[in-house]
Amino acid sequence: MENLKTQPPKTTVGERVSNYVQLMKPGIMVLLVLEAVTAMIVATGRSTDPFSVLCLVLVGVLASGGSAAVNQYLERDKDILMTRTDWRPVATKRISPQNSLIFGLILIALSLVVTQIVFNYVATLMILLGSLSYIFLYTLYLKPRTEWNIVIGGIAGIFPALTGWAAAKGDVGIPALYIGLLVFLWTPPHFWGLSMKYKEDYIKIGYPMLPVVKSEKEVVEWIVLSSIPLFAFTLLPAALPNLLNFGASGIIYYVLAAVIVIPFVIVDLKMLKEPTKDNGFQAFLMSLPYMFVIFGAMIAAALI
């Protein structure tokens, strides 16, 4: 009878599928896949091959989802202690750590195989470097050691753009670096606002996130300071039209970029006036649609 009581409750097929989808961090996955697709469409414009886009989406889902699964395996003991992550499937043992690791490694391996078969070795290398930088550089090395973890670790966010461009062109172009660097610059103001809200969680698990080691006022100042190069970089194609040549459709990009930059600036000014945790979290909320709007603007300008 005791054994029956301690056995975990049975789950339905739908629940198991849902658990594995959660394991792949679909919110982050969508952004990274869109980044790769944007780079491919910017590279090929109106001649974009829909089949290539679908294949890129597939390998992006596999690589991103696999890396997320390995991340949750590595951080399972930390996740269960944080209110932001204590619901995750490995932390709650809805998926065993061993299954999470195996699942993640299989997905990453599949992404490399499919990329090599459908595209080329440059795209395959970019996928591999993206996964390795997220798992080893950010998760294992930087996150537990330095308050600048999210800044340096943001390098992992560059590789989806490089993958998308390489899949289309077979090399790494300057426009792809530009798209990837946008994500790199967006990451700190996005995540610092979130980590302000969950400061106590990070203190509990011993991660030296910026809000743990600096005051609210200092963190807000860093959010604002890190937003300035993001805004400038977002509008850089206006000053350097050869960087991303949108041609006559460029106005679409600049209008949509202004639409998302201006309210972000307003939030930053409000934060400087009142450097509080709640206003810092407003910056996080404002950052959520930022890259989706920018990528959508790039895709529209490239296709129209």
Write up what this structure looks like.
It is a single chain. This protein is an all-alpha fold and 304 residues long. The protein has one domain: Farnesyl Diphosphate Synthase. 76% of the residues lie in helices and 0% in strands. It contains 17 helices and no strands. It is globular. The protein starts with a helix and ends with a helix.
* Total strands: 0
Helical stretch tally: 17
- State mean pLDDT (0 to 100 scale): 91
Report the β-strand fraction as a percent range: under 5%
Shape, please?
Answer: globular
Radius of gyration, CA atoms, in whole angstroms: 20 Å
Main β-sheet, in a few words? none
- Helicity range of the residues? over 70%
Order of helices and strands: HHHHHHHHHHHHHHHHH
Summarize the structure.
With 304 residues, the chain is mainly alpha-helical.
Kindly list the characteristics that best describe this protein.
0% strand, 304 residues, Farnesyl Diphosphate Synthase, mainly alpha, 17 helices, disordered N terminus
Give the helices and strands, then pairings.
Blueprint: H1 2-6, H2 13-23, H3 26-44, H4 50-74, H5 76-79, H6 97-118, H7 121-142, H8 149-152, H9 159-169, H10 174-197, H11 199-205, H12 210-213, H13 216-234, H14 236-239, H15 250-273, H16 277-287, H17 290-303
Helix pairs in contact: 3-4, 3-9, 3-10, 3-17, 4-6, 4-7, 6-7, 7-9, 9-10, 10-13, 10-16, 13-15, 15-16, 15-17
